[in-house]
Amino acid sequence: MARLASTAVPSNGTESDGRRTGRPGPITLRPGLLRPDKKPKKSIVRTILMALMALYTLVPLAWLVFSSTKTLEGLQTSFGLWFAGDFALWDNIRLVLTHQDGVFLRWFANTLLYVVVGAGGATLLALLGGYALAKFDFPGKRAVFAIVIGAVAVPGTALAVPTFLLFSRLGFTNTPWAVIIPSLISPFALYLMWTFASEAIPTELMEAARIDGAGEFRTFFKVGLPLLAPGTVTVILITTVTTWNNFFLPLIMLRDPQWFPLTLGLNNWNQAAFTPGGQALFHLVLTGSLLTVIPLAVTFLLLQRYWQNGLAAGAVKG
């Protein structure tokens, strides 16, 4: 709680005996000038909205967790948001990992490959491009800004078919490059890194490093890169989630199941029940989906502090 300041020293450069000193006196605070810190007001509307958002987010996750513990028969005969009679989670995990000679592990490895190379490359390009756009002036910078903003507004699905036609001519379809190369381009990540670098790196600090004899590369790695760490982690999370959940691009680019990511592979199992002579694998699809969600949830929890700092950066200007 803030306290009121009380002082016997007169202000306006006057001593206590009435003589003028010509110097500005200390500032005195009048009673009631400062008010006690107020507690944030509670809003019923905001509380209800947050509760609805929590339900919208957590109920499907709870349904997935409960469903992963059931057999195929239990899925059809039990309530979705509670356990069935038999707890079959460990058997389901074993079946997921061994079905079709363990192809789920191959899909998991493919997803890691696409994330490490695609999302990692997109983060590196966004980091370098955002730093250059934020701290260097060059002809055509406004045009680059307009192109980046315009590219952010274009959904990826709108470019999927032209990308497929281009890659088909180049012979890249049905190869990992058909998924990795488009994943390297992320206009939103570039824009976010550009905005973050503009606020996080003082130009005076870079000039001081140059005066001390540091080159541009050393200035970037020793001065700019540490200050960009929160924004870099935020971009890593965005590109990782985008690549991990990518479905439509692999769907039109890949035909060989050996190169499927998890999203496409699980969809392949799900569609097996609707093909002539196919086997229903819904319990394996649900358990595989739960195993797919866990790495992303762990990553978010571990990097939550950097994620929040990165999103808040640049929101308030002093």
Automatic annotation (TrEMBL):
Keywords: Cell membrane, Membrane, Transmembrane, Transmembrane helix, Transport. SUPFAM superfamilies: MetI-like. The chain crosses the membrane at residues 44-66, 112-134, 143-165, 177-198, 219-244, 280-303. InterPro entries: MetI-like, MetI-like_sf. It comes from the Bacteria. Residues 108-303 form the ABC transmembrane type-1 domain. Residues 1-32 are annotated as: Disordered. It is found in: Cell membrane. The keyword Membrane applies. Pfam families: BPD_transp_1. PROSITE patterns: ABC_TM1. Coiled coil: none annotated. GO terms for biological process: transmembrane transport. GO terms for cellular component: plasma membrane. It is a multi-pass membrane protein. Belongs to the binding-protein-dependent transport system permease family. This is Carbohydrate ABC transporter permease. It comes from Xylanimonas allomyrinae.
